[in-house]
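[step 3/7] fold_predict: job queued, chain A
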Amino acid sequence: MFERMRSLIFDTLGVRGLVVDVPASGGAVALVALADGTASMYTSAGGGIVGAGLEPQVAAAVRQLLDVAGAQQALFVDPDDRALPPEESVRFHWLTAHDARRLDVPADAFWGRVPHALAPTIGATQQFIAALQAADAAKPWRQPPSS
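[step 4/7] structure written:
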């Protein structure tokens, strides 16, 4: 399912946005923020968060992330091969209406342990993750039952 969802995003003509592949527990997490408002997180272990872009805080995080990444798009110089990142790296896929570019950053830079030129986009990605998690936690079926 994980690969299928990633393929759907990459195969959609004219899609614009950012896909971030983060290694996690022997697998990967794909974070998806698209200009059409799509905001999702897919895990290779199954599951994730789908359709969160309808939540106001997530929609704002998507816009912020795409604005920041767009300002740094010159850093995305390698043609995208749609592959997952090499070990100990996080891969950012910048998608435009015409092509896709990628940039790999050390996992330590993604988690804030070392500096990186992509730090503004990394920070906006972290805010996007927080907004996704908050929206998911606020779902009615996630709330503890009232007494």
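[step 5/7] annotate
The two ends are 38 Å apart (CA to CA).
Helices lie at 2-11, 56-71, 107-110, 119-137.
exit 0
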